[in-house]
Amino acid sequence: MPQHDSHQWTDSFPWSLSYRWGHSALTADFDLSADTPRLLGVRRPGDPEPGPEETKTDPSLPLVDLVLLGQGTGWSRPRFTGTAIGARLKYRAHHSTCGTTPDNTTADTTGSSADSDDHVRWHRLTFELHDPATGLTAFVEYASPDGIAALRSRVRLRNDGSESVTVRSLGSLLLGGLPSPDDLSVFRARNDWLAECRWYTEPLRDSVPDVNPEAHGGTGHAAARLAGRGSWPTDGHLAMGALQHRRDDRGWLWQIESASSWVWEAGESAGRTYLALGGPTHDEHQWRQVLPPGAEFTTEWAALALGDRFEGALAALTAYRRVVRRPHPDHIRLPVIFNDYMNTLMGDPTTEKLLPLIDAAAEVGAEYFCVDAGWYDDGEGGEREGGEEARGEGGGGEGERGDGWEGGDSPGGWWDSVGAWLPSVRRFPGDGGIRVVLDRIRERGMVPGLWLEPEVVGVRSPLAAELPVEAFLRHEDGTRVTEQGRHQLDLTHPAARAHLDGTVDRLVGEWGVGYLKLDYNITTSAPAHLAHSRAWLSWLSSTLDRHPGLVIENCASGGMRMDGASLAVAQLQSTSDQQDPLRCPPIAASAPTAVPPEQGAVWAYPQPSCTDEEIAFTLGSALLGRVHLSGHLNRMTQRQLTLVRDALDTYKSIRGDLRTALPCWPLGLPGWSDDWIALGLRQPVAGAGPVYVTVWRRGGDAERSFTPTGCGPGDVRVEVLHPRATAAAARWDGSQLRVSLPDAPSVVLLRLTPARPSPGHRHSTAQSPVPALDQLPPGP
């Protein structure tokens, strides 16, 4: 039995030797009554204390979940819990610290500190365990930011033995003792190209049936299980999940912070629910790691947040995401970005097309201007960016591109020849070349940006032969990874990294580019991808170290790499490639589940062919995130430009509140085909600021009522912020907000502020406070 220090140990549970660790917002209880410690539970103040029955968790659930080649997974058990080696890992020591200065127990694999916010105190706890049979030593690392109900966990494994071992699976967090599957619902989020962040829920018992374990002497093998594979880690599902208690509304929400493969499962053990989170495994992903004597391997971070219901847990996870990410001025300023791609130039930029767009973007108030795909292409015609369409295999938005679409459906010549990232002479003729465009952007008061797909090299690119073969990601037999005519760089190799350093230093250091949209339009699941993904994040961090003012947007055919590890380094996240504005609301409304609002890039692409209402609709979808403006603004009338400018002015007037706001869904998490959708943003402290609510109507009844989180009983002032001219009306009746949207489709952005009632005044009603449309300036 382990020894303990009196100042570190408590007997809060008289029936076992236990250790409680944590802070004012979260505590974790550990059972140390046996040689192998166990994590009994993680809870918030006020959550039910565990009783004797709840502490009787399965002893086969230790702190570490580990499988080695030749060692097996345990007795008749295909899952990676209750493993043969986990129970052999014996307690050696533990230590806990608290402070704002990062130490090597929390340094992550990105090259930047895991504890990014210098003003946050971090509580850290490490258990040291040892397996005498193999000589393996495991360091189980927990960390939690003070005052936030979130726990992050990972495991560092060191081979202190005399023989090499091969790791097949090593989990990041294993937690037992959660309530029975009878009491829980499980949440998962489908995440597909053009249809991101689609949450759904079901009783956990639907995946974990009650098999009467008493009659069989053991628990069944069923579990709710999800896995992400390869270089698009969020293709299919987000690397997230949640549990919610159906009676007392406690919520547990998690994310696996991996830009590569991952797996999680929630199952039953000893009548309670367990949760296992981790990165790649051999069985799921053909991954394995050989550890010679003295070598180490560290898992990906996993984070678990707690709160009341899904929304409360997400509030804690949002706060956690903000403190673990790399600090950057972009998170404070939230500038408006114009990108020439979506439903506009579609990968066919030229000096002639860009100059009038630049002038128009500046006129409506854009602050960054990004030249998207195609600026390096000396071939003929445009190119579709992202997913299947980039390979010319599909249409876009079911044919609903809008009249402004100008790109070609067939792949251009550059798709399999990229890699050098030099500007096209044909597209940007003359002595100045592309610098004429970049200079014009700066002259109009904006920061220039460029699209880049740095991790790929086309098979026809000279670089495919010039770089050493080791600079490319390879399969186990040594064959280069080749997908859709592209090779995949392996950034663990110095030549690959030097190539990208030279490219970015030229674009940023010599050309003065201040924004890079880094896209990634192929996918691979080569076993070596995990190491590359960590090197990729380390390279991003080193790039920002050299160019601290640079803003990086993370994109992979929209949201196919929308993971916690990437979002801790990149400033923005592309949430979708969806081109149909009517299909954007469920994506825009759900995006804050995956990314804080101030990092979630949402397209708004008004066109000259749009009605005023259509312009208002597409712009309204982006106002509670990061506005990514596109569209042929240079062809618009002055009246239409006024509508765009008004929307951006509204955004600029509220963006200071968005950077600290927490999301809520007054009508519930949106379904893909819902007629009414609502996204709210509230301040962390109720009453400390206004509540913003965007409401979309795509059909159904003309009126809905609901109560947004943060608006309690009493009088509330209601303002319509967008559109400035609208038939929409909103009224607070003392306990609910009643919203009327006579037209469909339509959108309205509201600001709700608690107000002191005046004598005889009981309700607050808001309609458009500005002139009607026929009073706006006419077009030319």
UniProtKB/TrEMBL annotation:
Lineage: superkingdom: Bacteria
Residue span of region Disordered: 39-59, 379-409, 754-780
CDD domains: GH36
Ranges of biased composition (kind: Basic and acidic residues): 381-404
Gene3D superfamilies xref list: Aldolase class I, alpha-galactosidase from lactobacil brevis
Entry keywords, A to Z: Glycosidase, Hydrolase
Record's protein name: Alpha-galactosidase
Organism: Streptomyces gottesmaniae
Pfam families: Melibiase
